[in-house]
Design a protein that fits this description.
mainly beta, 2 helices
Length: 148
């Protein structure tokens, strides 16, 4: 089971950080880096989708968020956080995104899925409060979705 989860974690990490899948986005503020990206779930492999209980569909998107505390001389330390997210479409319709925490192999991610339509541009608003602070960080991400 550990090998399977490790393999799934590696595949998801590579997929979500691949420049072919999506440009990596991050927000730095007050000693933290918030990594955030959104992809269509249809590009996930069946194994990754099954491992994370994500429905693969060209009509579903996946938001992925991680919170890294900046530590000099290192790539940083993953930390838990209170993360809330919602998306706005071009006409201002707001859609909440329920996120769940994933912990494995020293990494901490927050993922949530949401519906998408062809040629839709969504602006994601993230409100992040790292566990060891009461300062909220707001991050934004805009992503266009195209359905083949």
């Amino acid at each position: 089971m550990q090998v399977r989860i490790s393999t799934i974690s590696t595949i998801l990490f590579l997929l979500l950080t691949s420049p072919l899948a999506v440009a990596e986005n991050s927000t730095r503020f007050n000693g933290y880096t918030i990594h955030h990206n959104a992809i269509p779930t249809a590009i996930l492999s069946p194994e990754v989708a099954r491992g994370y209980q994500i429905v693969r569909s060209k009509y579903r998107g996946l938001l992925n968020v991680s919170v890294i505390k900046d530590v000099p001389g290192t790539t940083g330390q993953p930390v838990t956080a209170k993360v809330t997210a919602y998306a706005l479409n071009l006409i201002g319709r707001r859609q909440g995104i329920e996120l769940r925490e994933i912990r494995e192999s020293g990494a901490i991610y927050y993922i949530g899925d949401f519906p998408i339509v062809d040629r839709e541009s969504l602006k994601f608003i993230l409100e992040v409060t790292p566990e060891d602070t009461n300062r909220q960080i707001e991050a934004t991400l805009t992503q266009d979705f195209y359905i083949d």
